Amino acid sequence: MARVITYGTFDLFHEGHYRLLQRAKALGDYLIVGVTTEAYDKARGKLNVVDSLVTRIENVKKTGFADEIIIEETQGQKVNDIRRFHIDIFAIGSDWTGAFDYLKDYCQVMYLERTKNISSTMLREQNSPIQRIGIIGTGRIAERFIPEARLVSGVSTQGVYNPHLESAVRFAQKWEINAYKEIEAFYEASDVIYIASPHETHFGYIQSALAHDKHVLCEKPMVLEKHQADELFCYAKQHNLILLEGIKTAYCPGFHKLLGIACSGTIGAIRNVETCFTKLENPQYRELTDTRYGGSFTELGSYVMLPILKLLGKKYTSIRFDTINDENGLDIFTKISLEYPSGIATATCGLGVKSDGRLLIAGTKGYIVAEAPWWKTAYFEVHYEDLDKTEKYSETFLGDGLRYEISDFLSMINGSSSSEFKLTRGESIALSEIMEIFLREKRGYRNR
Ligand code: C2G
Fold first, then answer.
1. 120-246 and 253-396 share one CATH topology?
2. DSSP string, 321-388
3. N or C: which terminus of the chain has fewer CB atoms within 10 Å of its end residue's CB?
């Protein structure tokens, strides 16, 4: 009895998948089909999968070709599956020719000709046309955004707007996109807007982009006053528009996994969260020269506050800021202390003082620790009283990590999956309120 195995995502199940399974089944007597998990697809850079794992399994099942369906969760699983299930033939489409030759040590490897003119990518594009992204701002984050967006299928970076035309032109030439000085023309040519301009301009740009009926992804901190966040989210909701704050950590798979474990009860009730993110910044950069909106808290506060809001919630009973300022009155180091009815938290950020960047979550049964750069979560450990029980978790974090938020933003626009829980409106509003309190208490002024 010949045993055959094949693998795939089988997103938006189509003729190509059907024919592949049909031919794989015909190669032997028993066919095992491995269906990839969302996390594995994300880890291997396959973002924007539309159907859930359950739907994809159901679709494979419906063909009637699979005698057994398994889940493919990790890189390197194939060798173990082949041994474990005593596989004779590994079959896969010809788009993978050569890629699985290493399995020839374990079984026969067959590349079956791929069905022409059909693919999940094509179907995704038909169902949801490419979203043309217009970028506002030409700074360092915008530079990182473009290569990341180019890795997400379903979007294209069409152009950039900057009221200083020379900056827009320089940026556009580098990335081979369009430059705009006139914002109306820019909106006309864009379906969605990514805002990466200086913090204090976010509110105005979001307002205008939403008023032009555009979905918006805005860099953190989205806005600097609570009423602004309230107003923008309310408008977006009324007009069925997506408004998302881009804090990359919130969307990366490793952080997501860490939150899941922290909230699962394995370390008991969470009583203390400590976060720290410091980066010695070039004194010439905006972060240390913009005396109104620069400083460590406006720059890094969104990252350090994120795990606290996620794990202890938005209803803190007290918040306190301690800062060390430079000669311009900008905080180069800030410690935020929060109290909750049954927990406490401290967040530390710095641009002119270096410290040990770490995320520590202490519970009644154990603690979780993620070392720097925990904001690009790729590895963390769970510790208990019994040292032998330590658990270690790792997860892929690809490139600059902006691809995850872009992909979630796109899924939300296409209505195919809700990622809103990764960073809720309520959490973004709470962050804007904390920014507001900080600016009022430490700089002594309101934004307007
Ligand atoms: N396929 C095909 N013809 C198409 C499209 C896909 O024969 N027009 C085949 C692919 O070659 C693959 C299977 O259908 O063998 C599933 O394709 P995908 O869902 O795109 O999965 P893929 O990303 O190729 O993952 O570990 C996972 C495997 O590496 C395959």
1. no
2. EEEEE-TTS-EEEEEEEEEETTEEEEEEEESSS----EEEEEESSEEEEEESSGGG--EEEEEESSGG
3. N
Hey, what CATH class is 120-246 in? alpha beta
- Cα 347 to Cα 66, 217, 321, 333, 435: the distances in Å are 51, 25, 10, 11, 13
Q: How many residues does the chain have?
A: 448
Domain ranges of the chain: 3-112, 120-246, 253-396
Reported as a pLDDT band with limits 50, 70 and 90, residue 448 is very low
Angle between helices 425-438 and 296-312 (to 10 degrees): 140
Q: pLDDT-based confidence at 446, cuts 50/70/90?
A: low
Residue 20, ligand 1, Cβ within 6 A:
yes
Specify the residue with its C-alpha closest to ligand 1, atom 25.
8
Q: Which ligand 1 atom is nearest residue 11's CA?
A: 19
CA dihedral 259, 261, 264, 266 (to 10 degrees): -140
Which fold does the domain 3-112 belong to in CATH? Rossmann fold (3.40.50)
Residue whose token pair is 């795990």: 307
DSSP single-letter state for residue 439: I
C-alpha of 436 from chain center: 25
pLDDT of residue 289: 86
pLDDT digits (tens, 9 = 90+) for 39-80: 899 888 888 888 889 999 999 999 999 999 999 999 899 999
pLDDT for the residue 128: 80
* Residue range 219-242, pLDDT digits in tens: 999 999 999 999 999 999 999 999
With beta carbons less than 8 A apart as the criterion, state whether 380 and 387 touch. no
In the CATH hierarchy, which fold is given to the domain comprising 253-396?
A: Dihydrodipicolinate Reductase; domain 2 (3.30.360)
β-strands 155-161, 131-136: how paired?
A: parallel
What atom in ligand 1 is closest to the CA of residue 112?
Answer: 7
Q: How confident is the model at residue 328 (pLDDT cuts 50, 70, 90)?
A: confident
Q: What's the distance, CA 56 to chain centroid?
A: 23
- Whether residue 115 has its Cβ less than 6 Å from ligand 1: yes
Q: Could you report the per-residue pLDDT of 157-201, keeping only the tens digit for each? A: 999 999 999 999 999 999 999 999 999 999 999 999 999 999 999
